[in-house]
Every structure is written in C-alpha cells, then in structure tokens.
C-alpha cells in the first residue's frame, strides 16, 4: 500500500474530534465516512461540520467552493458494515475507554479489507492497551490530533507491534492531510505536547489549591513572563474544567497522590456549580470576554475574585 492508495477515511465517532478530523480529511480531498452509533449525533455532527467550514473560510484557509466540495465528500453512516467495507484508514475518536476502543476496532477488523490501517485519537491511553484487541496490531498506531482549527501539529505513537510500513504510511497520511507529525520513538502517556501541558496545568492547580496564589495571579505570571495570550487557567477553561477534573481525579486515585487529590477537589467545586469553562460561559473566568483578554490584566488592573 502507498499513501496515494489512502482515499477513503472512516472516522469512527462523530463527536468534537471526529468532526474536526473528518472535515480536515475532506478538505484535503479525501472521501470521508462519519460513523457513529447514534443517528442523532451524526445529524448534530454535520451541523457542526458546517460551522467548522465557515470557521475555515473566515480564517482564509479555504474558499466557499472548497468548503462546498469538502462537505460533499462527507457521508454519514450508522451501519457498521456499510461504513467499514471500503475504508483505507480508520481514525477512531470514541470515548476514552480501552475496552470500548478495543471492541470497536475488533468489530471493524471483521468488516474492513486487509489493507485498512487503524488509528486511534486517544488522548491518554497507550495503543498497546488495546492493540491485540484490534485484531491487526501491526497495522495499528495512535494518530492524535489537537484542535484542527488552531494547529496542524499531530502526534504519531506506535506500539512495539506497529510495523515500520504502517508507521511510514501513517506519517505520510498525516502529511497528505496537511499535518505536521511529531513521531514518538516509544509509547509515553500524553504524547509530547500534552505531557508538557499536563505538568504545567498541575503546577497551576497546586498553586491555587494550596492558596499560594490566585487563579488570576498564576495566569498573570505565566502570560507576563512567557508573552502568551492565555495562561494555564484560561487553557483549562477552554479544555473544559469537567475534562480536566476527570483526568486529575483519575491520576490522583491511580497514583494515590494527596496533592493531586486536593487539586481534584479544587476543580470539583467548579464542576459541581456547572462552571465548566468557555462552553458554559463561566469557569475560572466569565465568557465571552474573559478578564485575561482585557487590556491591563497583566498589570493587575482587572480582578475577579477566584472561586
Ligand atoms: N476533546 C478533545 O480536545 C480531544 C483532543 C484529542 C483527542 N481526544 C480524544 O478523542 C476521543 C473522542 O473525544 P471527543 O472529545 O471527540 O468525544 P465526544 O464525546 O465529543 O464524541 C464521542 C463520540 O463517539 C460516539 N460513540 C460512542 N461509542 C461509540 C461506538 N462504539 N462507535 C461509534 N461511535 C461511538 C458518541 O456517540 C460521540 O458522538 C477520545 O479518545 C479523546 O481522548 C479528544
């Protein structure tokens, strides 16, 4: 198989990430099948993909004609057999559960042609956790996207059983859909960027949870020194505080780390109130005009009491 032979991409899971990956593939000239267990999710997904097309157009990345063409290349499917029969590559974006991912790939293994490459977009799992369950471990690796609206950096993470041919094909595929691949030499939790980011976010949580510094001062410090547009708490607001809480709570329990447990409790206060960040209009900051984006924030001229 050559990268030129990858023409039909099956995106399994049409949520937040499946929509973005599917649209990016379609924009790059590939036929895309969006598969989900729920027809309702697929309907919502196509609505959001249409909005994504407008975002790409507004950013000057594509013309209206290209957007129309890309949208025409995407079909939706809830029938697994129909979805899998012509796939050259699967990009999986279903919930973060190794058993579910393994079982879902196993079901597609029975349907897909031998040539089909399997990739997972998992954020926190390792491919080796469900490589055997896929039924074709040699043709399987992680191909992990960030938010395609803002970046084209992707991670590729093989497990020890990924064949060199598969790794080379996935790397070439990433390039074909306009992405810059960071290829990991070995499995590691959180890939490259996320591993660094999680450390930063954990430090920020610890400073606030211990009462060393306010949420605003933590962000002010990071933004002021690093000259960034957003600090760690602003980042958590855009990820979703519920998601950050789940990850923190998971690791706190797994490693029995008391500071991480305290950090999880700190985050839970926001989650319990429904203050989940940008998506609910309130998190560490209020949206759409958070204090950290206002002039004078770094100088300490805007202040909202930390929750
Ligand atoms: N959200 C992010 O910022 C982000 C970034 C990179 C990677 N990821 C990873 O991508 C994956 C998906 O995350 P998301 O945020 O898109 O989730 P999401 O909840 O938005 O979407 C998941 C979708 O999967 C569907 N689904 C559930 N079970 C299924 C099955 N058996 N077969 C087919 N579809 C099924 C659901 O109906 C839903 O539409 C996770 O592994 C996550 O770790 C997420």
Number of beta strands: 8
The N- to C-terminal Cα distance equals 55 Å
Spatial order of the strands forming the largest sheet? 3-2-1-4-5-6-7-8
Q: CATH homologous superfamily of the largest domain, by name? A: NAD(P)-binding Rossmann-like Domain
How many discrete domains?
2
Q: What coarse outline follows from CA principal-axis ratios? A: globular
The largest β sheet comes out as: 8 strands, mixed
Structural class: alpha/beta
- The amount of helix comes to 40-55%
| Average predicted confidence as pLDDT | 96
CATH class annotation of the largest domain: Alpha Beta
Low-confidence stretches: none
Output the CATH topology of the largest domain: Rossmann fold
Share of residues in strands: 5-15%
Radius of gyration: 20 Å
Bound molecules: nicotinamide-adenine-dinucleotide
Q: What is the ordering of alpha helices and beta strands? A: EHEHHEHEHEEEHEHHHHH
Summed up, the helix count is 11
Which CATH architecture of the largest domain? 3-Layer(aba) Sandwich
């Amino acid at each position: 198989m050559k990268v030129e032979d990858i023409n039909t991409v099956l995106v399994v899971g049409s949520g937040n990430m499946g929509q973005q990956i599917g649209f990016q593939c379609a924009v790059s000239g590939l036929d895309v099948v969006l598969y989900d267990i729920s027809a309702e999710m697929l309907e919502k997904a196509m609505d959001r993909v249409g909005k994504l097309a407008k975002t790409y157009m507004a950013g000057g990345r594509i013309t209206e004609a290209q957007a129309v063409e890309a949208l025409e290349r995407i079909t939706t499917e809830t029938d697994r057999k129909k979805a899998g029969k012509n796939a050259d590559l699967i990009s999986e974006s279903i919930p973060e559960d190794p058993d579910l991912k393994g079982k879902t790939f196993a079901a597609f293994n029975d349907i897909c042609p031998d040539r089909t490459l399997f990739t997972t977009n998992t954020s926190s799992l390792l491919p080796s956790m469900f490589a055997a369950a896929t039924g074709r471990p040699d043709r399987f690796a992680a191909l992990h996207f960030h938010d395609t609206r803002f970046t084209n950096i992707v991670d590729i993470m093989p497990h020890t059983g990924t064949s060199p041919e598969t790794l080379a094909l996935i790397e070439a595929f990433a390039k074909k859909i306009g992405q810059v691949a960071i290829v990991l030499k070995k499995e590691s939790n959180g890939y490259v960027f996320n591993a660094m980011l999680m450390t930063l976010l954990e430090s920020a949580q610890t400073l606030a949870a211990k009462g060393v510094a306010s949420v605003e001062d933590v962000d002010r410090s990071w933004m002021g020194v690093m000259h960034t547009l957003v600090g760690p708490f602003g980042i958590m607001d855009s990820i979703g505080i519920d998601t950050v809480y789940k990850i923190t709570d998971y690791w706190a329990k797994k490693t029995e780390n008391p500071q991480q447990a305290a950090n999880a409790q700190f985050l839970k206060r926001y989650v319990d109130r429904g203050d989940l960040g940008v998506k609910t209009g309130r998190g560490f900051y209020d949206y759409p005009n958070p204090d950290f984006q206002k002039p004078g924030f770094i100088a300490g001229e805007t202040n909202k009491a930390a929750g």
